[in-house]
Amino acid sequence: MVDRRTGAVSVDLSIPVQADLVVLARLAAATVASRAGFGVEDIEDLRLAVEELCLSLVGAREDGRLHLTYECEGDAITVRCGYETADGEDGSRGADADDLSLRILDALVDEHGHELRDRRPSAWLRKHRSDAAV
Amino acid sequence: MDQTFTIEDEEIDGVPVVSASGEIDVATAPPLRDRLQALAASGKATVVVNLLGVTFLDSTALGVLVGALKRCREAGGDLPLVIEEPRILKVFEITGLTGVFPIFESVREAVGSVK
Fold first, then answer.
1. Tell me, what CATH number does A63's domain have?
2. How much is the average pLDDT of A116-128?
3. Fewer CB within 10 Å: C terminus or N terminus of chain B?
4. Of the candidates A20, A55, A104, which has its C-beta nearest B94's C-beta?
């Protein structure tokens, strides 16, 4: 969705949690960020960060769905990821997410976090364009 | 964007070299893990992993490589990596793994280090 007044863009994506489909989450991130004027380095950082955001929620599980929202506003992109488990249980790793994933997120994005949204394990990240005026 | 993932085995001067290319992620890391486990099971204590053709690598791939490194060192060997692409090297740097793996810019250097 594009807000014609502010230029803000919001894209929603829902994918089954399957190893070979997580690529769609990072492809969408690259597309949205490219459209918003992010440079190649930022886009590559974002692709990896979104992958790690998803992994930090689902770990090795292969059930349920991931619901992602990509929002671009100003010089920043915000990606939110909610995990709907197949059995309705909170199967996410959340705060226990793999240390490597968290280290990668720390290095590649400006902010990130885990939370419960609508009783669903969720994670989010925000990244500003590195060429944006400070 | 090259999403084709391939693994090739060869032996150079008696040293096994596993060359991966494409994107190593949660979907493609398991075949790499299986290949490295098979080499360890066949008694190869040292294996060079050539990542020159890799275009994307996530924490799942790092986990596979760390697990393989541990097995190699327990067997008295090592797991030298070959990385040239700054983007791939960056993933090792930000996770503190450049101090854990021996990393070389060419297969020749990596093989030479363990002969």
1. 3.30.565.10
2. 89
3. C
4. A104
